Amino acid sequence: MSFEEETRIALSSSGERAATKYLKAHPELVLWGFVNTTGHSKYVVNEFPLGSKYRVDFVVSFSYSGVWELHLIELENTDDMAITKDGKPSQRLNSAISQVHDWKDYIDRNRIQVQQDLSDWCINKDLLGWHKTRTSPSNYTTDKLNDPSTYLRWCYHIIIGRRDSISKEKRRKMNQLSEGLARIGTYDRFIDIAKNYDSSKNNPDRSVHLPVTDG
User: Fold this and answer.
1) Do the Cβ atoms of 123 and 136 come closer than 8 Å?
2) What pLDDT, in 10s, does the model give residues 193-212?
3) Residue 46's beta-bridge partner residues?
4) What total of structural domains would you count in the chain?
5) CA-CA to 87 of 20 to 30 Å: which in 11, 121, 175, 177?
6) What is the C-alpha separation between 30 and 107, in angstroms, rounded?
7) Where in the sequence is the domain holding 28, given as residue range(s)?
8) Whole-model pTM?
9) Could you tell me if 80 and 90 are in contact, meaning their C-beta atoms sit under 8 angstroms apart?
10) CATH number, domain at 41?
């Protein structure tokens, strides 16, 4: 069975918990689902806490050219609707959007602590395991993740539902909503990454990541 087929089956109407378990076992799908360049340091962590009240399903920490890019990802169910038949955000999507705003508010008020906590999690709980030394995450220009002076780019994402259940009109509405704080996509981006992994076996020059723009 190909990686694409395995991923498609795993993410088909399996619910948020099963999807999270599968993605935790294949963190490379999470990484390349949100990162579209090679860069320097790369980490993926699961269930990252923001204080005692919030937990982020996945955080991708990635550095390049003196920048740390941090992707905070909220997963909803694989079979949830993002947009209702009336063309409005579903209750589940509205709840996710509200939660992401709560994350941002917490980070804005506690940025230094969040940086330190995330740095510690990258050292101790990174799912990729590409960095063998247990040192503070740093890029090639020595910009440390936990340094208050480091430039951070915070990016927020909501993953909900599947692509084949979204009409052109619903897609237009999702794109409108994605102009706000969080970009909204579907679980199919992970299937796309798995497909690229399969293709790269026969073509080593093919990149496994892709600049996802439509979920």
Assistant:
1) yes
2) 999 888 887 665 556 765 44
3) 58
4) 1
5) 11
6) 22
7) 3-202
8) 0.92
9) yes
10) 3.40.91
